[in-house]
Amino acid sequence: MAAIIPVRKGEELPADKLTAFLRKMIPDFPEEPLQIQQFSAGRSNLTYLLSCGEWEAVLRRPPLGPVAPKAHDMKRESAWLTEIHPLFSLAPKPLLFCDDESIIGSPFFIMERRKGIVLDTEFPAHVTPKEEICRNISETMVDTLVALHHLDYTKTRLANMAKPEGFMERQVYGWIQRYERAKTDDIQEVEALTKWLASHIPEKSEAAIIHYDYKLNNALFAEDDITKMVGLFDWEMSTVGDPLADVAVAMSYWIQEDDPPSLKNGFGKTPVTVYQGFYTRDEFIRAYAEKSGRDVSNMHFYLTFAYFKLSVICQQIYYRYRRGQTNDERFRHFGKFVPELIKYAWQLAMR
Questions:
Q1: What's the domain of life for this entry (predicted)?
Q2: Are residues 150 and 298 in contact, defined by beta-carbon separation less than 8 angstroms?
Q3: DSSP string, 55-107
Q4: What pLDDT is recorded for position 42?
């Protein structure tokens, strides 16, 4: 299951102010003391479990310290969930948004809590990861992404919250700029890689609702059926954009058995997707193409971009770690991991 831990030092929430706010905003809020714990997963926004009597909810706030422009926008994520939850039941229901920074020191929103199993680096003790189970989980991941991309965003208010025209061009140049703002060390391949990406942007692309942080440990599976998805979280980057970029970003997190150690262990322990039965990235992409009917012949570009995007995300986190804006020791080794990701992306570009 998703690990729930005591709140990390330096990432505490002011319980008294938060309790007073919740009692004001939520009808019949329990009188018991508010309990605050933290979800250990996640490397960007901070996520907390709030408990008070029988009441439970999840609070999300931006990371500590300065953040990149337009990043970690709690208001947008809450508004996006408000629109997509009725269309796509795996998205959690937001309960309220607060932009009063005097409460916890930043904007935040609160959403429903869902219970289940998060698969990351191991299976729960009661589940034997047989090959058939791993295959079925892979199929569920593909089917869910296809279903999300099939939604008609033009009939919703989401159409007014995103701009699909020129999406990939904005993405390529935007992530290059984010890298420059978070740069700490010179990496040999960056200049050539960014020039390659800029010169290979597709002229045309489709538009669909995309999650854009779609990965196994952002999904929640049923406790009584590990192959059934019951929740999908971390919608911060969701927008209307190129569905193939969404597939590629998912694949940048999807580790397989023959990957180099630098990829397998980049986020710590090796993910369960190396187990026998899980799709390889090629199998995932082929299954997506077959079920969605989309042309994936240019996936080479999208995968190269996705690994660059992932390297920039890790670089931004490492930048905050270097500046003392987070105490999470998981990020110490990102200074070595980022160059490995850049190198891997460049190798993809040259194939």
A1: Bacteria
A2: no
A3: EEEEEEEPPSS---TT-S-HHHHHHHHHHHTTT-TTSPPEEEEE--HHHHSS-
A4: 64
Q: What is the CATH number of the domain that holds 89?
A: 3.30.200.20
Measured distance CA(327)–CA(290) in Å, rounded: 44
Helices (H), 117-212: 131-150, 167-182, 190-199
d(CA 193, CA 305): 9
Residues 132, 137, 139, CA angle at the centre, nearest 5°?
95
CATH code of residue 202: 3.90.1200.10
Tens of pLDDT along 49-65?
Answer: 999 999 999 999 998 86
Residue pair 94/238 in contact (Cβ under 8 Å)? The answer is no
Task: Report how far residue 84's alpha carbon sits from residue 88's, in angstroms, rounded to the nearest whole number.
Answer: 6
Range of the domain at 26: 4-112
Distance, in Å, from the CA atom of 191 to the CA atom of 183, rounded to the nearest integer, reads: 13
Question: Is it the case that residue 69 has pLDDT exceeding 60?
Answer: no
The answer to whether residue 124 is domain-embedded is: no
